[in-house]
Here is the input.
Amino acid sequence: SWWASFERFGDVCRVDPCGRVVIPGSLSSSHFLFGCLHGLHVGATVELGPVANAEGAAAAVYVVPTMLAASDGANTPGQDPGYIFCAGARLDTAVVAATRERFPASHLVEYYGASELSFVAIRRHGDASPPGSVGGAFPGVEIRILDENHQPVAQGETGEIVVRSD
Here is the structure.
């Protein structure tokens, strides 16, 4: 499923294959492992270790919300990563605002997924996604809300979320 996601992810977010992808977390986490493999897939140089140790602007950085919330607010002009990919929990609106202020030239991308499903939903901050959401369905993913008889519910009604992906 990740292999299929690499191609579709590239349609949504173009990571510079000549750039660097920084992975500041353990590869035992699926988010960081995905970031590492995605970086290698596009041909980028992958750096494992804290973002603070990276020199120069990165093509992409993979983080979790707590990393963004704990950042000290310092930034070197011209060092904004091309993309900041965040997963693990929905981003708080204050963290989004602080991140966009700190890295105005970066594309902040939040996504929701699971190891067994890959991507489910994706949001590029600044798009038309509703506030408080993690965006819309990732390309190629079907999301439906069904009742107890497995029939689609009317908009605004409660049901079970059903997802189909590669």
